[in-house]
């Protein structure tokens, strides 16, 4: 049993004290052993109070019987409440329901209130948020809400409630502190690798602040400094800034922040990264006791681990990553950045900021009857406007809900909708394989889905993936499609609107035929029907549409038609009395096909076999994925989505099975009734599959993900891949075979039980 001691610390320029210690009962994923590093604010600047709390924490650290979560009550009777919160935070695995937190401040209206909820899906740059602006009637020049750009903009769920009340209200929820710290740890690691490669300071700074998958761009919070960044293979500066060229915003009105101090802190962090890397390289060379020792190590590794297909540079970078993550200097750099981030919350001078028991912000809320001041206040949590960098909290937000009397300027009728604008499809340089677990859950909850696609480049990979995901999950009847950039569809052979529409739909036809080949005629039929009945074409919507302007007239008509359908949908066909009966032997075959497709794709991604459709991923990305699942705070990394991909493969195969009933009780129904039955069953199955795949590939195999993350050194890429295959995928989603193992039995039985139960509850059966 190992004992640790805590110590107090205070960053330069920071008034309050913090405490740092290694937790004896929490796992450090860097080592796989107890001793996770914890740093928390004590909430006092008084030396005596700080020393008293540190002393109490040391008493807990020296008393093993207090290390269990059940001892919290006993500890509360003996120690300061703040000390108890610091020690017991994270001992029990709890998932925060952020939507519920928002509900407590601003409940979402539902069908009983006369509202319908619409989920917007679309590829990056298709104009999804611009469509939202037009529906809300916000001015793209004066209000800039929600924010738009040609690159990633919406990275958190934005829920927008249109109402005829006079007051504007908002509530924001924030990413948990530990998750922010984990992303910063990855940033510092990426910056260290850049320093090892000899990159210039400007690039090291950018790696330090902006995460490589672009979800967390802390430069929005901390600023980008005065130096331009050139030739960086992350997001281009011009592309990820707001595309509106407006100069009438005064940054000083968005919080009292000393950017000069922040720039000094970031510069200090860059220097610290370079120094610790230089020291590591020097110590490694000294340890090897060979001139140019790292190159000798590289050469030997290349010879000894050819099966791993790792170049020597990758090994050295991974060793650097492992060593640094265990050093106090490394975490001190992270601490510097966290302290600067927390200053932005302290600078909030409007609204009500609520904090968790651990002191990290949980919600911010605000209400006002003044539209201008309201949007200005909300801007801090949603904007990507470059002149405000250093004052924004956008990357720290995981959900924002806004309610107000929003309506298009050209409409006199009130709009009663809840618009859910989430992260765009294809926010990665690679195509999206399937919809995330989060989006799959949203699809089941909403009343309508609005797919936003670019008419100038229709139906790219991400949009096609969305159509397939919507179909197999039983949600095709909710689909509405709006094609933007229609003004850019031009040609001498396209003189009329109808001919331009047909030009766009020709691309759609090719996609629908392909989906029919893959998912069967019912999927093609329902998607074709929805695209014929609920498709809209708009252009020029990046500007404010005006009734008297000829170029705006057609887009206004199209959006008006869309809003009428979203608010008052046509009646749906009933399922009728007929019920399907399926062949029992088909179900195990469907599960086997799904598992085989899943394993084939992931063996390619892990580099265990060649797969042209799923080439080997870089070790840093697989390691980042394994960390998220080891920690339990996400089930995907960028476009690597094992949980979602298993769900989709099962959905697709079961969808195909449900199209082929052995017979129908009470007579065979009409095609429309068959389609309704198929959607009802598919939707119900999906709800269960979301829970099943998370449990089997995340919760029940967490030890496998942890072991995979811990691999380092020569051959670790191959070892990590084998562990993920053996201890995660083969256990969580084994391919059923003749010689059935207990894991195969349970996986097959779990899926079979879901489908059989759903079918029987609907009145059908298997025989």
In short:
With about 775 residues, the chain is an alpha/beta fold.
Helix content: 40-55%
The end-to-end span amounts to 58 Å
Mean pLDDT equals 86
In total, the number of strands is 16
Low-confidence stretches: 227-246, 288-311, 427-431
**Rounded radius of gyration (Å):** 28 Å
Structural class: alpha/beta
Largest sheet: 10 strands, mixed
Strand order of the largest sheet: 7-8-6-9-5-10-4-11-12-13
Structural shape: globular
Report the sheet-strand fraction.
Answer: 5-15%
Question: Helix segment count?
Answer: 25
What can you tell me about this protein's structure?
With 767 residues, the chain is α/β, with parallel strands linked by helices. Among the domains are: 7-88, no CATH class; 177-346, no CATH class; 579-766, no CATH class. A 10-stranded mixed β-sheet has the order 7-8-6-9-5-10-4-11-12-13, sandwiched between helices. The longest helix has 30 residues, at 259-288. Residues 227-246, 288-311 and 427-431 have low confidence and may be disordered.
Keywords:
three-stranded antiparallel sheet; 12% strand; ten-stranded mixed sheet; 50S ribosome-binding GTPase; alpha/beta; 767 residues
List strands and helices in order, with pairings.
Layout: E1 7-9, E2 18-28, E3 33-41, H1 47-61, H2 72-76, H3 81-88, H4 98-105, E4 116-122, H5 128-136, E5 157-162, E6 168-174, H6 177-196, H7 201-209, H8 219-222, H9 259-288, H10 293-304, H11 312-325, H12 328-346, E7 352-355, E8 361-368, H13 371-382, E9 397-404, E10 417-421, H14 437-445, E11 448-454, H15 461-472, E12 479-484, H16 497-519, H17 521-533, E13 535-537, H18 550-567, E14 579-582, H19 586-605, H20 619-631, H21 642-658, E15 663-665, H22 671-699, H23 702-710, H24 716-732, H25 742-762, E16 765-766
Parallel strand pairs: 4-10, 4-11, 5-9, 11-12, 12-13, 14-16
Antiparallel strand pairs: 1-2, 2-3, 5-10, 6-8, 6-9, 7-8, 14-15
Helix pairs in contact: 1-3, 6-7, 6-9, 6-11, 6-12, 7-9, 9-12, 10-11, 14-22, 16-17, 19-21, 19-25, 20-23, 20-24, 21-22, 22-24, 22-25, 23-24
């Amino acid at each position: 049993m190992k004992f640790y001691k805590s110590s107090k610390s205070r960053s330069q320029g920071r008034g309050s004290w913090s405490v740092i210690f290694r937790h004896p009962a929490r796992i450090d994923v860097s080592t796989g052993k107890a001793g996770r590093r914890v740093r928390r604010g004590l909430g006092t600047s008084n030396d005596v109070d700080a020393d008293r709390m540190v002393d109490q924490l040391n008493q807990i650290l020296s008393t093993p019987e207090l290390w269990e979560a059940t001892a919290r009550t006993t500890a509360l009777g003996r120690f300061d409440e703040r000390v108890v919160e610091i020690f017991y935070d994270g001992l029990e695995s709890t998932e925060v329901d952020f939507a519920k937190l928002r509900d407590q401040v601003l409940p979402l209206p539902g069908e009983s209130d006369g509202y319908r909820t619409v989920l917007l899906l679309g590829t990056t740059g298709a104009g999804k948020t611009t469509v939202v602006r037009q529906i809300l009637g916000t001015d793209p020049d004066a209000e800039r809400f929600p924010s738009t750009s040609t690159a990633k903009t919406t990275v958190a769920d934005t829920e927008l409630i249109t109402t005829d009340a006079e007051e504007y209200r908002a509530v924001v929820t924030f990413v948990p502190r530990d998750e922010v710290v984990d992303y910063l740890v990855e940033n510092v690691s990426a910056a260290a690798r850049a320093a090892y490669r000899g990159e210039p300071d400007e690039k090291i700074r950018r790696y330090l602040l902006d995460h490589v998958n672009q979800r967390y761009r802390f430069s929005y919070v901390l600023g980008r400094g005065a130096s331009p960044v050139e030739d960086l293979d992350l997001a281009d500066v011009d592309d990820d800034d707001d595309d509106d060229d407006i100069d009438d915003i005064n940054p000083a009105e968005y919080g009292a922040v000393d950017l000069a101090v922040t720039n000094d802190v970031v510069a200090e962090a860059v220097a610290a990264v370079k120094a610790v890397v230089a020291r590591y390289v020097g110590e490694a060379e000294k340890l090897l006791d060979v001139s140019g020792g790292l190159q000798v190590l590289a050469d030997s590794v290349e010879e000894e681990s050819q099966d791993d297909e790792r170049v020597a540079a990758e090994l050295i970078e991974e060793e650097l990553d492992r060593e640094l993550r265990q050093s106090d200097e490394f975490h001190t750099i992270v601490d510097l950045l966290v302290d600067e981030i927390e200053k932005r919350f302290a600078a909030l001078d409007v609204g009500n900021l609520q904090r968790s028991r651990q002191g990290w912000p949980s919600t911010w809320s605000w209400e006002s009857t003044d539209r201008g001041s309201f949007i200005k206040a909300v801007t801090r949590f949603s904007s990507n406007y470059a002149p405000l960098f250093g004052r924004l909290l956008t990357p720290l937000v995981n959900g924002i809900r806004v309610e107000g009397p929003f309506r298009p300027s050209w409409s006199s009728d009130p709009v009663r909708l809840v618009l859910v604008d989430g992260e765009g499809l294809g926010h990665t340089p690679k195509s999206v394989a399937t919809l995330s677990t989060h989006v799959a859950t949203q699809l089941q909850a909403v009343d309508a889905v609005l797919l936003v696609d670019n008419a100038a480049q229709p139906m790219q990979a991400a949009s096609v993936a969305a159509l397939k995901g919507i179909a197999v999950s039983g949600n095709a009847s909710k689909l509405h499609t709006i094609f933007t950039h229609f003004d850019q569809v031009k040609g001498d052979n396209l003189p009329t609107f109808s001919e331009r529409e047909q030009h766009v739909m020709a691309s759609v036809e090719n996609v629908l035929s392909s989906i029919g080949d893959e998912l069967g005629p019912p999927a093609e039929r329902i998607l074709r029907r929805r695209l014929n009945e609920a498709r809209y074409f708009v252009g020029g919507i990046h500007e404010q549409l005006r009734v008297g302007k000829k170029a705006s007239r057609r887009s206004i008509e199209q959006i008006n038609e869309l809003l009428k359908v979203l608010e008052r949908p046509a009646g749906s066909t009933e399922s009728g009395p007929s019920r399907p009966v399926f062949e029992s032997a088909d179900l195990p075959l469907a599960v086997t096909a799904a598992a085989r497709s899943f394993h084939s794709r992931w063996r390619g991604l892990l580099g265990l076999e060649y797969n042209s459709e799923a080439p080997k991923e870089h070790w840093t990305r697989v390691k980042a994925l394994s960390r998220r699942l080891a920690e339990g705070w996400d089930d995907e990394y960028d476009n690597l989505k094992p949980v979602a991909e298993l769900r989709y493969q099962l959905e697709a195969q079961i969808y195909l099975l449900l199209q082929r009933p052995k017979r129908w009780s009470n007579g065979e129904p009409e095609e429309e009734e068959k389609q309704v039955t198929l959607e009802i069953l598919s939707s119900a199955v999906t709800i269960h599959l979301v829970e099943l795949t998370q449990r089997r590939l995340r919760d029940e195999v967490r030890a496998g993900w942890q072991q995979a993350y811990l691999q380092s050194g020569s051959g670790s890429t191959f070892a990590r891949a084998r562990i993920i295959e053996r201890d995660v995928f083969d256990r969580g989603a084994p391919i059923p075979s003749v010689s059935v193992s207990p894991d195969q039995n349970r996986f097959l039985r779990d899926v079979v039980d879901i489908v059989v139960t759903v079918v029987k509850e609907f009145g059908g059966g298997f025989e």
